[in-house]
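Subject: mismatched residue count in predicted assembly?

I count 307 residues in my input, but I want to confirm that the predicted structure covers every chain. Input:
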Amino acid sequence: MRLALQRDLVCEQAVELVTDYLDGALSRRQRRRFEAHIRACPNCSAYLEQIQAVIATSGSITPDDLTPQARDDLTAFYRQWRGEQPMDEGPDDR
Amino acid sequence: MTFSATSVVADPRPSIRRVETDAELLEHLRAGDEGAFAYLVDRYQQPMLRFAYSLVSNRAVAEEAVQDTWIGVVRGVERFEGRSSFKTWLFRILANRARSAGAGEHRHVPVEPGRAVDSGLFDNTGSWRTPVEPWGDEADARLDAAKLAPFLRAALDDLPERQRQVVLLRDVEGLSSDDVCDVLKISAGNQRLLLHRGRNRLREALLPAMEED
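Triage response: the counts match. Full output below for your records.
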């Protein structure tokens, strides 16, 4: 066992582990060191919260609304793909 | 058949009609229901386009890959067994189509090693040079998400494409880590590396907006 592994993490190292931590990809030992650092460091604790806010915001963005025209176009394609409509209209799908 | 519908995936999107799960819509689609197709298009056309633009730089090629994906869905719906979610299946087809369409531009470039967070932000002991200001307490989180969304959209478009692909699938679309690796054909380690770089860039892009008030 190397002594270096026992040292506390510094901020520069801790911030790189945030996504691994949130994904449960750290070993038990790494996780303990990470959590100990976060508890003791208000800056890295704020960083972790900011990343969590980024994740929450990403999950909350709604897709731009589809124009009715785009939907109609695709539905027309659908009829064509299913062969329920004569093939004389609309772009070729091949 | 066990089927993980989109409701299982964390995906709170008020603008999308949630009348039926993907699994239910697929049942209708199998029966040849055009309305079910229109619902799926409503739900996934824009997310697919956004993902396609991150996969191929030529917009026309990206749009064609999306259209080919819908054809693949209509033709393949009978064979879809629900081992993955519909959404994962959809993005996997799209990634494959985009890969073959943009074969030239999609050589396998290794993910370069390096840090996500700029080392200039730390002093020579590895501590932050300037304090990291908290963005707000738990109660503000929802409000912040609404306020930040427009900034985030713009920042997403500016991400390097591989980071954008991973962030879109993981954080925007809510796919699992395994599914993202499957769709993008990357290792779990590289996926987390790209994801963290992307998240960190988004964080940096949001800093000015958060420091306004």
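The domain at 6-105 of chain B is CATH 1.10.1740.10 (Rna Polymerase Sigma Factor; Chain: A). Marking this ticket as 'not a bug'.
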